[in-house]
Amino acid sequence: MIWLTWRQFRAQAIAIGALLAVATIALVITGLEMHHSYAADLAACTPQGDCDSTFREFQNSWMPALGLIQLFLIVTPALMGIFWGAPLIGRELETGTHQLAWNQTVTRTRWLAVKLAGVGLVAVATAGILSYLLTWWAGPLDQIAGDRWQAMTFASRDIVPLGYAAFAFALGATLGLLLRRTLPAMAITLAVFIGLQILVATTFRPNLLPSSSATFPINESIASQVHGIEIRHGAEAIYFVGLPVPPGAWVMSAPPIEDASGQVVGTGAHPDCFPGFGPAAGAGGAKSVGPRIEQIGACLASDNLHEAVTYQPASHYWPLQWAETGLYVVLAAALAGTCFWWIRRRRN
Amino acid sequence: MNAILRAQALGKKYGRREALTDCTLEIPPGHVVGLVGPNGAGKTTLLKIACGMLAPTSGRIEVLGEEPNGAPAHLAKVGYVAQETPTYASLTVADHLTLGARMNPRWDAKLASARVEQLGLDPKQKAGKLSGGQRAQLALTVAVAKRPELLILDEPVASLDPLARRGFLRHLMESVAENDTSAILSSHLVSDLERVCDYLVVLVTSRVHLAGETEVLLAQHYRLVCTRRAESDLPPGLDVIWAEHSDRQSTFVVRTEAELPTGDWSAEHLELEDLVLSYMERAAAPARRTTTPTGDAR
Fold first, then answer.
1. Tens-of-pLDDT digits for all 298 residues of chain B?
2. Of the residues B55, B85, B133, B200, which has the fewest C-beta atoms closer than 10 A?
3. Fold for domain B5-205?
C-alpha cells in the first residue's frame, strides 16, 4: 500500500521537492544578503541615534518581496488541500479505481490510513519548511515593523501554517470522499478554507484570550509620544495615533478621545485647541500650518479627556499561535476520523 | 468445501428502489457460474455484495463460507473485476503488476508476467492508453495473479468487440482451469456465457428466477409443440414456463425433473439461450404465471 501511495503521489512529490529546493536556495541567498545589510545599516545608524529613515528605506526595498512570499505561504495550504487532498480519494471514487484497490489483500482502513498519513505528512512538512524559512528570512523586517499581529504576518509565521496545511489537506480528502467527485470537492475545499481562515482571524484569535486595556489621559506628555492626530467623521472624532501601548501588543480597538462621562469629543467642543479645523476656519485648513501635537495635548489637558485602548499583550503571541494551530489540528483530526468512519460503515 | 456463494433472503434497496429482492441461492463449489439477466436486473448489485463492496439491506450472504467482511484473509480469497474494469490511468502495465505483488501475499508474479507477455501488452504502456479490451485483460490479470479461490467478474466482456471477447473468455477459461478457481461472471447476453459456464443463474427484475447446473437445466426443459390446448390440459408434473398459442397450435416451454411423459406432441430440448429467454419473458410479464410459482430457485 505504501508503494501504491508513493507511486500515485510520485510526480507531485518530485514537483514539491524541486519547488522547496528552489525556494530554499532563493530565500537563503536573499535572506543572507538582507540580514547582512540590516546589520550594516544598524551599525551605521545607531551611533547617530536615529535609525528611522534608514529603516524606512530598508523596508521599502524589501517589503514587496516580503508581501509576495507571505502570499505564497498563505495560499500554499489551500493549494495542497485542493490539489492533493481533494483528488486523494475523490479521484479514485470518480474513476472507480477504488474497486481495484479495495480488492487487493489490503483492508480499506489501511488503504485510507497510508494515503492520509503519507500525503498529509508531506503537506504539513512542506508548510513547516516554508514557514521556518520565511520566519527566519523576514526576521529583520518583523523586528523593524514590531507588529507580529498583522493578519498576513501572524498567518505566515511560526507554527500556524502547519495547522492550516493539516486542516486544508484533511478537508480536501474528506470532501472528495463524501462528494465522490474531484472538482466540486476542490471548489468547496477552497471556499470552506477561506471562510474558516477569515472566521478564525476575526473571531477566534482576538477573543480567545482576555484582552488588556489601557487608558491614556490626554495631556502634553502623551501628545509628545504619539505619531500624530487623526480627525475623522466630519471632525466629530479625534484619535491620537501611536499611543504608547506596551511594545509588540496587538491593538484591537482604539476608540476616539472621550471625556470623563464617556462621550466622544469632537474638535467643535474645543475650537481653541484646533485652529484651522473649526467650522469658522472653513474646509481648507491646511495641516502644515496647524499647531504642533504637543500644543494640542497641552490645550486639551485641562478638560480631563482620555483615550482608552484594548489590546492583546505581546506575551499572548505564542499562546495564540499554539491555540490556533491546535484548533486546526483538532479539526483536521476530526475530518480524518470522519473519513475512517465513513469508509468502514458505508460500503460504496 | 464451502459453497461459492450462499445467500439467504438477500435484499438491497437504494432508497425505495429495490435493486435485489429476496435472493436465495446456493452455488456449490468448483463451478464457473454465469449470472444472466437484462440490464438493471440487479446483477451488479449482487456481485458487489458478494465481494463486500456493498452491504445488503436485508438477508445474509456467505462467500466461500464467510460473510464478506473486508478482512485480509477473505480479500485474498476473492478476486473482483468491476464492470468498468478500472485501472490506474497514469500507471503503466508493469506498475499494475508491482501493485498486485505489493498488495497480495499470494501474488503469482510468474503467472502475471507470462499473461502480460502472452497478451502482447507493453509493460511500459500507461494503462490509460490501453484499449478497452486490453484494459479488461490487465484488470483480469491482476485479479487472477492474486490467486483467488473465487473470481468475480462483472460484465467482463461488455465493452469488448467480438474478437476481444473470444480472446478474453479463452484466457479466462485457461486460468480458471489451470488454477482450479471458481468464477462468477455476469452478462446480459447468454451467448457470451454459454461456452464457458457450467452453472447458470437467471436474475430478472431484482429476483432470481432460475439457478442450476447448465447440463441439468438443459436436460430438464423441453419445448412442446402440439395442437392448440390450454395449459391445464397438459399432464400434471409439467411446469409451464412459457406458452404461445396460434390458431391451431400451441407451443410450451416446460420444466420437469422427472422423465417427460409421452403425449401427442413433439418434444425437443432447448438451446440455452432460448431457455433463458423464456424465463426472462415470463418474468417480464408476471401475469402469465398461471401455474404454481415454481421455477424459482431450483
1. 688 999 999 999 988 888 899 899 999 988 999 999 888 888 999 999 998 888 899 999 999 988 888 888 889 999 999 988 899 999 999 999 999 999 999 999 998 998 899 888 999 999 999 888 889 889 989 998 999 999 999 988 887 888 888 888 888 888 888 878 899 999 888 888 888 899 999 998 888 889 999 999 999 999 999 888 888 888 888 888 888 888 889 999 999 888 888 888 888 988 888 999 999 888 877 654 444 444 443 3
2. B55
3. Rossmann fold (3.40.50)
Using CA atoms, how far apart are residues A167 and A76, in angstroms rounded to an integer?
Answer: 12
Residues of A in contact with B54 (CB under 8 A): 347-348
Could you give the CA distance from residue A16 to residue A11 in angstroms, rounded to a whole number?
9
DSSP symbols for A297-333: HHHHGGG--EEEEEEE-GGGHHHHHHHHHHHHHHHHH
- Distance from the Cα of B64 to chain A's closest Cα (Å) equals 15
DSSP per-residue letters across A134-175: HHHHTHHHHHHH----SHHHHTTSTTHHHHHHHHHHHHHHHH
Across the A/B interface, how many CB contacts are shorter than 8 Å?
A: 74
Q: Is B70 on the interface with A (CB under 8 A)?
A: yes
Domain residue extents for chain B: 5-205, 215-288
Backbone dihedral region of B27: left (phi > 0), alpha (psi from -120 to 50 degrees) or beta? beta
Comparing CA positions, the residue from B114, B80, B88 lying closest to residue A4 is B88
In angstroms, the Cα distances linking B28 to A43, B150, B198, B254 are: 91, 12, 11, 25
Q: Is residue B34 a contact partner of residue B194, using CB atoms and an 8 Å limit?
A: yes
Between CA A272 and CA A269 the distance in angstroms is: 9
At B29, the amino acid letter reads P
Per the CB < 8 Å rule, is A103 touching B80? Answer: yes
Separation between Cα atoms, residue B58 and residue B178, nearest integer Å: 37
- Where does chain B show beta strands of DSSP type E? 5-14, 17-27, 32-36, 58-63, 78-81, 150-153, 182-187, 199-204, 207-213, 221-227, 239-245, 249-255, 266-269
Q: Does B33 touch chain A (CB under 8 A)?
A: no
A109, A195 in Cβ contact below 8 A?
no
For residues A309 and A240, give the distance between their C-alpha atoms in angstroms, rounded to a whole number.
Answer: 11
- Give the ipTM: 0.84
Beta pairing partners, B185: B34, B153
B91 to chain A, any CB pair closer than 8 A? The answer is: yes
Nearest-by-Cβ selection for B53 from A2, A106, A348 = A348
A100 contacts B82? CB cut-off 8 A: yes
Q: Which of A11, A105, A346 sits opposite B103 (nearest CB)?
A: A105
Q: Which residues of A touch B84 (CB under 8 A)?
A: 96
Pairing of strands A306-312, A212-217: antiparallel
Element (H, E) at A24: helix A2-45
